[in-house]
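[job 0412] stage=complex_fold ligand=zinc ion status=START
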Amino acid sequence: MEQTFEPVIGLEIHLQLNTASKMFCSCKNAAGSTPNTNICPLCTGQLGVLPTLNKEAVKLGIKAGLALKANINEISVFARKNYFYPDLPKGYQISQDLHPIISHGYIEVEDKAGNTKKIGITRAHLEEDAGKSMHGGDCSLIDFNRSGVPLLEIVSEPDMRSPQEAYNYLTNLKKMMAWLDISNCDMEKGELRVDVNLSLRPVGTEKFGTRIEIKNLNSFKAVKDALTYEIERQTKLLNEGGKVLQQTMLWDDAKGQTLVMRSKETAQEYRYFPEPDLPPLQVTQAEIEEVKNAMPLLPNEQKKVYMDTLGLNAYDAGLVTQERAIKDYFETVLKEGVQAKAAVNWIFSDLAGKLKAANLEILQSPVSAKDLAFLIKQIEGGKISSKIAKEVFAKAFDTKESIKKLLESSGASQVNDEAQLEVWAKAAIAANPKAASEVKAGNAKAIGALVGPVMKVSKGKANPALLNKILNRLIKG
Ligand SMILES: [Zn+2]
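[job 0412] stage=complex_fold status=DONE, emitting structure tokens
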């Protein structure tokens, strides 16, 4: 009989921190610049130079620790991780080994059944990035711009039980880290890198099976696909009486399969020892408090506040707290005095549609939050119809013109001329006396059948509030 296995998944994340300069020197933290333009004797590993710790990186580490509900350790120790690689000229990377800055935290994710589950964070530590080798043609090139860029490595407990849980963990982690400006988290630029650990064990047992590691994952989807593939492969292997070997694997996204990179025998021994050129890192309670006080609410906390104070439902509140930039845009619209629900509707219908079609992020929106607020207020104030508003919005987005200017110049402004409105209203009543008598009998909704034709004949420009008033006056006398 076929046995059922349970996957045990843990994740290691490397995040490039959003600091102005590198971890131990004053070079610009800009890995993507022209190769080898942000380098100095220190980050190229020359003799006789001493590292100086970047305080901003420490602050970001503390911030991450607070977001992960973890212990911020008052004393942590930098250590040398020794290995040879052409893009690591020092022959070691400065990292943290036995005493990381952060330990024992968690992230909440949704599990298979839709319940909230805590995924433990074993530790997170500060370290420096290595340079970057580029291989092509008959030579290899090295770019040291990335050498010494501050990293935070976040190691989870093996608490995930499905590829989807791993995906949810990554999504939540990225959302939080980007929200707090700890990292840009752009996977394509290597600002967020994921390594996966996986083992299988028979359902109902406790003992861990043999663990494999998967590297070279360039998207969250790749993580999910690689895990799904490996779980299937190992389940089949175990059911056929085979043994899983402890290996490091690579994920080939194009082929949709894992490849063996190296086996246990060639595993690295890093010979860690405390970095003699840096004192132990000390973090005081006052420093932790300072970071805490400057921190915005986390996405899920902000979501709750929006539900409680703005009356948004969970879905809408979730939409506006997806990203920091969306939340900032939304709040700017609100500050102008627009109703929350109207703001959500506009941001996630017209604006989102246009952004998607133009392949833009909300930060790049040609229509500013203030401009959108102005437009919504024109509708709320009954000065333009929503049909006109949509047209003006689209035009503003395409031409980058201000909404105000477009409204003035296009003559899109409303017909507020009562005499004209009355002519249209009378014609509508004459054409549909049934609707008029229903309104008279107290069915307020029936007025829509009269408003429609007037909007049509006025090309959407009749002032809806004024038209309503005039229709009611004409019908009820
Ligand atoms: Zn440097």
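The chain is about 40% helix and 20% strand.
[job 0412] exit 0
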